[in-house]
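re: ur msg from earlier - yeah i can do the glutamine complex, just paste it... oh wait u already did. ok heres what im feeding in:
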Amino acid sequence: MPNFHSLSSISAALKSGATSSKELTQYFLGRISRLNAKLNAYITVCEEAALAQAEQADAQYRQNQAGILTGIPMAHKDIFCTQDVLTTCGSKMLENFVAPYSATVVQKLNSAGMVMLGKTNMDEFAMGSSNESSYFGPVHNPWQLDKVPGGSSGGSAAAVAARLCPAATGTDTGGSIRQPAAFCGITGLKPTYGRVSRYGMVAFASSLDQGGAMTTTAEDAALLLSAMAGFDPLDSTSADPSRKDVQQSDAWLAQVAAEGYRGENRTFSIGLPRQYYTDTIGQAALADMQAVLEKAGHRFVDVDLPHTDAAVSTYYVIAGAEASTNLSRYDGIRFGHRCENPLDLEDLYNRSRSEGFGAEVKRRILTGTYALSVGYYDAYYVKAQKIRRLIADDFSRVFEEVDVLLTPITPGPAFGLEELTADPVAMYNQDKFTVPVSLAGLPAISIPCGQTNGLPLGAQIIGPAFAEQDIVDLAHQFQQLTDWHQQTCQWVED
Ligand code: GLN
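and the outut:
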């Protein structure tokens, strides 16, 4: 089924009766059983449940009750709780955890009629940029198996890139949708903080965590987002639906959900932040992208985001601090790994946590606890919060001048497996172009814009809060004018 790589083309084929949900589901399950052993993109495959969902979807088509996404197979990052299906979060701690309920995102995509093929591999508790911290082993980049797929949503990115599913959910705390999308040559949309419910999404850093879409096109990202997003009373930081910008965003998403995505050919003024154009390998690809967009009528302006350099340290203080408190719930009592034969309560805590968490998670808990402890709180945590505000203010200022920003996503293409594992700070610095956006809570989309040595390169389009429509429209225009998003790795033909 060579043309069935995008949600929109699959949707059309289902509607016309050219294929059925069952046939599609069998097709993707077949690809998973042939190729997943090489990639390790899935932790759990839900063969039986997927086929049952597909049969239901086919019945909906027969009864003329199908929506745009009905019957389309997809995968969830293993951070989203799924009732009756394992949710490991990439950790030994949750190796046997079956949630008693499904995340709002999962429920929403279920009710849109999508078929869940399985749960994808990820860095442990979403902490990482290479998927190498997963308890279930690293994911291999389908473009070159000795390279990382990026992280933490590496399983979702590799699965979409190798077409082991046409789309997947991901989450992004400091870049975990955008960076793996770039490394695997797919499209990744990180929405505005609060746009997508965090209910049932295992918490890493609650003021930053945001679910989003990993797809092959910007159009598909809009389609998936339209079914995922929306106000959720179960998430206390869900975007306030009485805000004007939220209402505009809601109206756009409702239109996409009802009628499909129709891109608008508006022209944008696009800022190029000087601080992002320093040392990246992708400069040439971005310059080509700029030329394509200039020819299409978009206008470019150099802008300044002066606090960019402080973003990585700020992010790692705040994310670590929040992680250290969020992960205190894994105490071996109510759920998660419990050590054998504890001597007393303290021994139970100590050993359950020592055995259940991997090295990177422990590093975050330790540094995070340190940043929050008496005597260091003001020096680290409070200072980081102040810098976070300065970073957010930088963005607000430039968005008075330009509509969107165009930047690289990563300092280079996918790096080698084990290349950075011995040097955590080098790994953290990989996130320098993604974490500022996260700290400011803004939406950004990652799209393929070139290649180097057979590996994809990504560009990032950043928008003001709730301007998902603008960044998707611009990304879509670029994808109409170029075919980088259609370049695939060799696996796709297998
Ligand atoms: N790489 C970043 C980290 O390790 C971001 C992870 C994420 O977005 N979940 O924290």
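cool cool. The two ends are 11 Å apart (CA to CA). ping me if u need the other ligands too
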